[in-house]
């Protein structure tokens, strides 16, 4: 096996730059979701009844986003551990540990899973229940902001050879290909 590419976005782009880009994408996503919905449903009165439920859902977005990443591997029978560490008092850090390498296609599905399982249902919910579109728009925008690194990884992974394997290390992942010897 040869390493086709090693990807470590923290090292390549920097954590602060990723956070700023994620925040800007989150803000743009909220504007692009909320403004058209508010124009379409301008006669709808927004309902603020479930503020506590909304706050609980906001707190749960990050763990749900992580579980959505792990779900495709769990479905295929891979063993995965989700670890929580507390480097700060306020924000816990969630990490996924893979025991085995994943195929390129399974990793692509893993990167797409939060969008398909969180953002799309939230957008559908905002159409069905427009009186809660402000809550749903914020939740969908936060998930889209969390997906910025997924999109970057996805763009790299799509360019990888079709039969490649993705192996995880502590801070990065390697895209491995079979080397054919003559």
Automatic annotation (TrEMBL):
Q: Which domain of life is it from?
A: Bacteria
Q: Which residues cross the membrane?
A: 20-44, 50-75, 108-129, 135-158
Q: What are the protein's UniProt keywords?
A: Membrane, Transmembrane, Transmembrane helix
Please spell out the taxonomic lineage of the organism that makes this protein: Bacteria, Bacillati, Bacillota, Bacilli, Bacillales
Please give the name of this protein.
Zincin peptidase
Pfam families in the record: DUF3267
- List the InterPro entries hit by this protein, alphabetically: DUF3267
């Amino acid at each position: 096996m040869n390493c086709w590419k090693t990807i470590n976005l923290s090292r390549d782009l920097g954590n602060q730059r990723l956070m700023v880009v994620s925040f800007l994408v989150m803000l743009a996503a909220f504007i692009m979701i909320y403004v058209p919905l508010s124009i379409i449903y301008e006669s709808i009165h927004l309902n603020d009844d479930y503020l506590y439920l909304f706050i609980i859902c906001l707190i749960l977005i990050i763990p749900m986003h992580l579980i959505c990443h792990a779900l495709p591997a769990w479905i295929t029978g891979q063993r995965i551990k989700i670890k929580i560490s507390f480097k700060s008092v306020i924000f816990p850090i969630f990490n996924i540990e893979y025991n085995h390498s994943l195929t390129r296609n399974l990793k692509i599905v893993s990167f797409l899973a939060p969008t398909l399982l969180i953002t799309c249902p939230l957008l559908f919910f905002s159409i069905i229940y427009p009186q809660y579109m402000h809550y749903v728009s914020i939740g969908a925008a936060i998930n889209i902001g969390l997906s910025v690194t997924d999109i970057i990884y996805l763009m790299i992974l799509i360019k990888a050879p079709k039969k490649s394997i993705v192996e995880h290390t502590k801070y990065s992942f390697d895209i491995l290909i079979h080397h054919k010897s003559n």
